[in-house]
Amino acid sequence: MQLYLVRHGQSFNNTLPDGVGRVADPPLTESGVKQAPLVARHLAEAPAKDPYSDDGPTAGYGITKLYTSAHLRCLQTSEPIAEALDLDAEIWVDVHEEAGIWMEGVETLPGMRRSEIADQFPRVKIPDEIGEEGWWNRPRETEAQWVARADRVAAELWREHADTDDHIAIVAHGGFINDLVSALVANGPLPSGAISSRNTSISYITFIDGKAMVGYLNRIEHLPADLVT
Questions:
Q1: What is the domain extent for residue 39?
Q2: pLDDT for the residue 18
């Protein structure tokens, strides 16, 4: 398996240096809307090469399966990717951002409802677990819970895809990408430091002989300088 982790485009909350004024499920900014089709075209057309293979570069990344978080910013980012790749994106609820949908002083928030997702993103595949009560509707997630969730996603990738020729892209979040890479290569949180991801950056891991091999992290060559956020 070859795994590509794509961070969503710049969201409204990303523009708030101290978090004041944040919203629970922010949309993409104008810059984020511009970033998304650029990473989509890159994934579909750019020369790509597996650094752990003797094969030469291919035209495009050869993505065979596209997953996305249920957060609005990821659905907005995955939409042009799905169009460029001619693949329907599939929501994988467990790849949501650390903490989930939350606001200070509010006990629970729903997240987007099934009908809202279907109306706004007709190409996305919505799992049965998302209904009209929304995909979240629970208290803010703790660090122990998001670490355990990343472990679950890592285990499912190993179980379902590791020994296949699948080329999987997951549109997710900076925090979750850090958690998932840590789970895949260190079986849990990194002992020191963290992995930083810019908006629409691509990180790549390939699975060889029972090992998760990191090919690269945080690549943004598809973005012009004025859209690096």
A1: 2-14+25-227
A2: 83
Q: Is residue 32 very low, low, confident or very high in pLDDT (cuts 50, 70, 90)?
A: very high
Backbone torsion region of residue 73, taken as left when φ is above 0, otherwise alpha when ψ lies between -120 and 50, otherwise beta: alpha
CB burial of 6-39 (b: ≥16 within 10 Å; e: otherwise) equals bbbbbbbbbeeeeeeebebbbbbbebbebbbbbb
| Residue 20 in domain | no
Domain assignment present for 30? yes
Comparing CA positions, the residue from 214, 1, 177 lying closest to residue 98 is 177
φ, ψ for residue 20 (rounded to 5)?
-70, 130
**Which tokens go with 52?**
């752990």
CATH number of the domain within which 122 lies: 3.40.50.1240
Q: Among residues 197, 141, 194, 139, which one has the least CA distance to residue 173? A: 197
Strand blocks (E) in the chain:
2-7, 47-48, 58-59, 65-68, 90-91, 167-172, 202-208, 211-219
Rg (C-alpha) for the chain, rounded Å, is: 17
